[in-house]
Amino acid sequence: MSDPHTPFTADDRTRARIDTTKPHSARFWNYFVGGKDHYEVDRKIGDEIKEIFPGLIDVAVTSRLFLGRAVRHLAGEVGIRQFLDIGTGLPTADNTHQVAQRVAPDARIAYVDNDPVVLAHASALLTSTPEGMTTYLDADLYDPDAVLEAAAGTLDLSGPVALVILNTLGHVADYDQARDLVRRLLDGLPPGSHLVISDGTATSEGMIAASEAYNASGAVPYHVRSIGEIAGFFDGLDLVDPGIVEVPEWRPDALGPSDPATAAVDAYCGVGRKP
Fold it and tell me: By the 8 A CB rule, do 206 and 53 touch?
């Protein structure tokens, strides 16, 4: 495992795996949240989708804000000191480790992704307070046992862990398989652990059309689901108030003074505690 205080540099083999001829979800999302790590092919489909459904920008922005509120709640009010963030995506402002370690400098964060695009930018994630630790793990959501085994090098899996999976599960086409992957990850975590999920939902014609346009672009498909399916990921957990809600409605009183007020979005979220 790499030293959490040593920047990671992608090698030529990693960069060679990056396909710049097709849109990519991490780069596409990075474009929507105002980042700089994207290519013309990502901007092209992004601009097309803005024409079809400009509300997807609000989904991207509010999802990042939800992440901040959820992590602050867990690190602050709940006292969680360990975070397993799967489907990390490209670094932007206020990543999980930055939010958590502002609240609790001794927090430990393990990021997990197996995407060469993200791997090439992993050095931006491998920063930490002296008291805490941040690592990047090259592992696959489809192999929960390997994810947990790798995470055990950074996290104490005998103590509560916050499992964070934002805007990632839609890549798993089969819903039952997606639920099983989440369940297997939670099975490896002790009581008192929490699950944090947000994802786009098929709750408007615009969102469905945007999803269809993205999937037709040659990118790895992403499947938006029903509200009930998002709720199903939390079966067996104790939902944290206010339950399964639109992303801006999860504890909006915790928004920062500079955070934009947002109307309804086609994305739902929740936080649940493992009893």
Answer: yes
Q: Would you say 48 and 68 are in contact if contact means Cβ atoms under 8 Å apart?
A: no
Instruction: Please identify which residue in the block is written with the tokens 């999802």.
Output: 63
pLDDT at residue 26, rounded to an integer: 74
Neighbours of 4 (CB within 10 A): 20
Which residues does 42 contact at the CB level (< 8 Å), separation at least 6? Answer: 23, 24, 27, 28, 30, 31
Tens of pLDDT along 84-135?
999 887 777 789 999 999 999 999 999 998 877 777 777 767 789 999 999 9
Q: Give me the count of residues in the chain.
A: 275
Amino acid at 14: T
Name which of 208, 269, 254 is nearest 72 in CA terms.
Answer: 254
Our CA dihedral for 93, 99, 105, 106, rounded to 10 degrees, sits at -110
Token couple for 113: 């992704």
Contact between 50 and 43 under an 8 Å Cβ cutoff? The reply is: no
Query: Which residues of the chain carry a pLDDT beneath 50?
Result: 1-10
Q: Half-sphere exposure of residue 92, counting CA atoms within 13 Å on the CB side? A: 23
Q: What is the 3-state secondary structure (H, E, C) of the chain?
A: CCCCCCCCCCCHHHHHCCCCCCCCHHHHHHHHCCCCCCCHHHHHHHHHHHHHCCHHHHHHHHHHHHHHHHHHHHHHHHCCCEEEEECCCCCCCCCHHHHHHHHCCCCEEEEEECCHHHHHCHHHCCCCCCCCEEEEEECCCCCHHHHHHHHCCCCCCCCCCEEEEECCHHHCCCHHHHHHHHHHHHHCCCCCCEEEEEEEECCCHHHHHHHHHHHCCCCCCCCCECHHHHHHCCCCCEECCCCCEEHHHCCHHHCCCCCCCCCCCCEEEEEEECC
